[in-house]
Amino acid sequence: MKRLWTPAWIARHVALVVLVTTFLGLGWWQVSRAAAGNAISWGYAVEWPIFAGFVVFVWWREVRHTLREEPTAEAGDTTPDASTGETRGADEAGASAGTPETNRPRPGIRRPVRVARATAVDEVSDDADLAAYNRYLSWLNANPGAKPGDYPG
Question: Is 6 a residue whose pLDDT tops 80?
Answer without folding.
Answer: yes
